[in-house]
Design a protein that fits this description.
29% of the residues lie in helices and 25% in strands. By secondary structure, it is α+β, with helices and mostly antiparallel strands. β11 and β12 form a beta hairpin.
Length: 374
Amino acid sequence: MKIGVYKVGMASPSDMSEVIKLLDSGEVDAEDIVALIGKTEGNGGANDFTRAFATLSFQLLLAERLKLPLAEITKRICFVWSGGTEGVLSPHATLFTRKAQPSTKPSPKPSPNNGQPRLAMGIAMTRDLLPEEVGTLAQVNVVADAVRAALAQAGISNPADVHYVQVKGPLLTPVSIADADKRGAQLVTRDPNGSKSYARSAMALGVAVALGEVDAAAVDGAAIARRMDLFSSVASTSAGGELTNCEILLFGNSPSASSDFVISHGVLRDAIDAATVRQVLQTAGISGDGALDEAMAARVAAVFAKSDISPTGRIRGWRTTMLSDADINYERHSRAAVGAVIASVTGNPAIFVSGGTEHQCPPGQMPIAAIVRV
C-alpha cells in the first residue's frame, strides 16, 4: 500500500481551484483519491452548513472527473470536515490517495523501504444510525466494529502502531429529533448542539474498545460522556449534521507499506503545550528546538489535533474566560489557541484542529498527530 498526502488551500467552501491544478497536472489521479480531511470556515456547530457545502463541491468535481454518479462518489470517498477556522487557522483540505503495491513473486530482495515502517491507512464506514442511537452504546459498538475493519485493511497487526483514528459521525438535528418523536423513540438529548458531546463520546469509546485501550465490559450507556477516566489516546472524533453514518480513517505505520511518509502522535497537556508539538515532530524525524526552518517545515505534510480546556477553565494555574464567555463558545476559543501554538512551531496555519475531547485523552488534555515526509 502506498499512501499519498496532498494539502490544498481553499478560498471558500466551494473553491476547488487547487484541487483542479493537482488533477490537471497529473500529480494526482482522481481514481486514487480515497479520503479527505479538512477545515471549513463555518462555526463548527449543529447549523454549520459549510461542511456539507464543501463535501458537495468536491463530490461534484470528482463525479465529473471520474464520470460517475454523485451517489457513487459518496460510497468510494470518505469526506471528513471540521468547521471553525478561528484565529490563524486556515481553511484547507488534505487529500489522501492510495495505490496498491504491485504483487511480486518471493525473492531475496528486501521488503518495501527495507522493512522501515511507513504510513498506512484503513477506511471503514458504519451503517446509518437512527437518531435514538446517536450517543449511545449502539454507536460505540458500530464504531468499534468499523475500527477493527479499518485496522485490518491498513495491514496493521499491532494496535500500538496506530497513531491517529479520525471518526466523523452524525449529531442530532431538528429533523432527526422530529423523526424520533414521531416513532416515540427516546433520545440522549433534545439539544442539537448538546448532542455533539454525546456523539463524540460514543465514537471515541468505540475507538478505545476496538484498540484495546479500554475494556469493553467497562463501557455502558451510563459511561458515555460521563466516565472520563475511560479514553483513547489516538481517537479524534467530530459530529455534524451532514452525516447519518460514521466514517473512520485509521492511520498508523506498517513495515509492509511503501509510502513516503510516517506518522507519530502525542498528547498535549494543555492548549499552550508547544513542547509536545515539537516532540511529536521529532519522533517523526523533524528536528529543531524552536520554529522549523523552511526545509523542515516543508516536510510536515499534515497536523491533526483536538482542542479543549480543563474542567476548571485554568491553564497552568491561571484563570481563563473560555468557559464563562457568553459571547464565544469555549470550543472556538480553544481551537484558536491550539491552532496558534501549533502554527508557531510548524510555520503553517493550515492545521486540522477540532474542538471537544470527550473520552479523547484525560480531561483537559488533547491528542495530536503529525504526518511527515521521510
